[in-house]
Amino acid sequence: MSTHDTTRRAFLVRASVVAGSVAGAGLLPDASAQNLDQHQDAQTHATGGGHTFFNAQDAATVAAFTERLMPGAPGKPGARDAAVLNYIDLALSGAYAELQDFYRRGLAQLDAYCRTTDKETFVRLDAARQDAIITALEQGKAIGFTWPTAQAFFETVRTHTIEGMFADPVYGGNKDFNGWKLVGFPGGQAVYTPADLQNKQAFARAPIIGLSGFFKT
Description:
9 helices
């Protein structure tokens, strides 16, 4: 894993903690206890191999883009491991439906820019070139973007990557609690023992339930 990858991962982890996304607050689409089952039904469909919003090409682009934002490494889960694509796909079919055209146009402009600079679509570029493209977006140097702007598209996908990594798994991301494990967040625990409550060290037991599990009726 390159220094560039390590720096990017560290930034997103810090951003998730500052934003409170590890606790499922602040960045998430609204979901009350009464509609959690609907979210879980959609999650089951999406993780079965289909997508609720993206077509196959756009799904591949988002998967590649988010993985470069949060690259995986041995013992360190990345965006693919946490099913960030699934999170974004479900959000765009529900709470973030107003961003559907934003994503469609942003992805089309991204591939148009890649064809101009590299004669290939984003997913067909190697990791180094994908990183260079993403940097150009972040710095507003990618040409051909009108709406959304290059920076707006980058910032939105980065925010959604953080959400998909660290939000409650009920929203379709943070698969197997990979995001929470990465930052040492214990999630929901059915029982804390007296020893747990007296221990002054960081709580290290693996998460066993999403926070939303305590609020279902």
